[in-house]
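Discussion board: Methods & Data

I've been asked by a reviewer to show the raw model output for two of the constructs in my manuscript, not just the figures. I'm not sure how much to include, so I'm pasting the format here to get opinions. Each protein appears as its amino acid sequence followed by a line of discrete structure tokens. Is this the kind of thing reviewers expect to see in a supplement, or should I convert it first? Here is construct A:
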Amino acid sequence: MGSPEPDDMLRISTIERTDQVTLRLEGRVVGPWVAEVRRLSGSMISRHGSLTLDLGGVSFIDSDGLALFRELQQGQVIFLNCSTFIAEQLKGVDDHDQHRD
């Protein structure tokens, strides 16, 4: 009781190189996992000055996750390997705030 459902799991892998760090996310960015992604992202940005998020394995992002990604898009974060569905969600978030050239 109290543990996440298997469908709500998120695997986070860190790939650190001399000049770049990537967080590879696999699963669903929902609930308590949003806070964990926020914590790790902040830590990596503080240490490296920028961050790449590989979303190739992400199947779903809830509204809190989209809000987090909106914040990260405004900073030094690059998103890679978004599915069409995820890319449209992120585009909608970006278009909601402002249009970028």
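Construct B, same format:
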Amino acid sequence: MSGKWIEFKPLFLVLLAKMREANDAHGGEEMLRLRAYEALQEMVLRGQAEREGKAYRGIPKAIAEATAATAAMAAEQSRSPVRALTVTSPAPVAEEPAR
């Protein structure tokens, strides 16, 4: 998304075509449409996109800042040591006597 206004349906069709090219379009078209719409609304709430009627446009500076912040968090997590998890077996459950 950049400074160009585009309605959701054409935007979704572009997204769907790209996902099909990459063989990532799993879960049905309606589910993908819902997830894409929710993601777009989150972008609007975070100030990364604007909405005017049924049209949306991205705010490049806000998107770049969010991308940089996500990359920084991923880099930080990759540097932090992984803590070992202790897996314990569940306690045996006592069976009730038959009646």
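Answer (T.O., handling editor elsewhere):
This is acceptable in a supplement if you add a one-line summary per construct. For B, something like: The CA atoms of residues 84 and 98 lie 42 Å apart.
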